[in-house]
Amino acid sequence: MHPASLDTLCWMGNLDKSVLVERSDGFDYGYAMNCVCGSVSVLSAEDYFAEADGAHMMCAHCGASIHFGIAVAALRDQDDPALDDEAVSRFAWYHTSTEPEWPSPDYARRFVEDMEQNDHRPIKRDHYVSFHTTKALHLGTYETAIENMLRRMHDEHDGGSQFYLYRVAIQLQPGRINPGYRDENHDEAAQLSISDLDSDDLDAVRYLNVHEGTGVLSLAIRPETIDAVQRIAIPSHDLALPLIPHLLDRDFKDLAQAKSEMEAAQAKVESIPHARRKMMYFGVYDDPGGLAKKAGDLEHRYIDLWNQLECRLAENYLPGVSPSIQRDFNQAMASWKSANPTVDPEGFASRYRSMAALLERSGDVIGQVSRQPWRDLRAS
Ligand SMILES: [Zn+2]
FRET label pair with 193: which of 65, 79, 130, 353, CA 20 to 30 Å apart? Predict the structure, then answer.
């Protein structure tokens, strides 16, 4: 379809959701960093991860030394298409949530209910409730949404939670979005509330995301801006990466053996409280027969073997993902493991292949969510 005719549709309020524009660019991106001279220099994903030269790089323009990191992260593409107000409504936007019916119309009611059930009594109750229930909603690229899920799994006790991927169509009237973008380094875009949007007379705030999908533009919006959403539960087991035969045979065998040796050694000291065992291990207390030492050493070995398994999984199942996102992924998977303490290495590897598909087969995942029926939010 010709862009001009599409524009007309958008602004007439008849968004054609079958032609939303995708702009997924994968998980192996480099970075752009601001210099005090006002220009931007690029940095490879590898140098960013390795914090090369003590996280310093030379400005490509003035030669000054830049201490790189998210504090000076810049827009990766100075001509990012999301800078175009009209393009913003034509994009497929993404969001991940543990809410099966996001955006939930009764979120505020349930928030208060949960608070009362848990006997949680904040001092400034009304302020607390309104702060937590009137935040703007956040939309981003596919990559941003997936990285946000990884961070929540690791940092916000959602390691074992069921997540959903939402593909979102929005409608924005001209002039209802900020010109340019806010810089999340300087503004608290993540904390934007509906009343902030009210006071600026906006429906959407475009901001530079530096925490997820670093260097791309995200949106903070009023819920009413959402036209409709599509949803899949993730990970999708149909899309799991194919098993690489025999890749992990040795790891599984070593882990099984290490586990039984560790458990046998632990059984001999199980009557001793854990804290005391630790002191025995470090030689603070007497350790007759070296039993606590042996149990501790075998536990460390078992943990090391798990780490080796996780590294091998990343190397083989995430070849198209940058090292820092591989690390985030493995931390998220470690949180999943903590939430599922009885999982064996085979079960872990199987989950890993399903989750890794979200990064390695993003086109297929996007295809799957874009074939789902739309839930129209305007009608409700
Ligand atoms: Zn410079």
Answer: 79
* Least confident span in 13-17, 79-83, 188-192, 349-353: 13-17
Which one, of 101, 84, 86, lies nearest residue 375 by Cα? 101
* Domain edges within the chain: 78-239+361-380, 240-360
Say how many Å lie between the CA of residue 85 and the centre of ligand 1: 30
Return the number of other C-beta atoms located less than 10 Å from residue 282's C-beta.
12
| Mean pLDDT, residues 177-185 taken together | 88
CA of 133 to the centre of ligand 1 (A): 42
Cα of 70 vs centre of ligand 1, distance in Å, is 17
SS (H, E, C) 342-355: CCCHHHHHHHHHHH
pTM higher than 0.85: yes
Alpha-carbon distance 333 to 327, whole Å?
10
Q: Identify which of 10, 370, 6 has the alpha carbon closest to the alpha carbon of residue 225.
A: 10
By the 8 A CB rule, do 207 and 217 touch? yes
Q: Compute CA distances 287 → 52, 295, 296, whole Å.
A: 44, 11, 12
Q: Give the pair of three-digit tokens for residue 316.
A: 């083989």
Contacts of 305 (CB under 8 A, 6+ apart): 251, 254, 255, 258
To the nearest whole number, what is the mean pLDDT of the chain?
90
d(CA 239, CA 355): 9
42 Cα to the center of ligand 1, angstroms: 12
Name the percent of the chain lying above pLDDT 90: 73
- pLDDT value at 11 more than 60: no
Q: How far is the CA of 58 from the centre of ligand 1 (A)?
A: 8
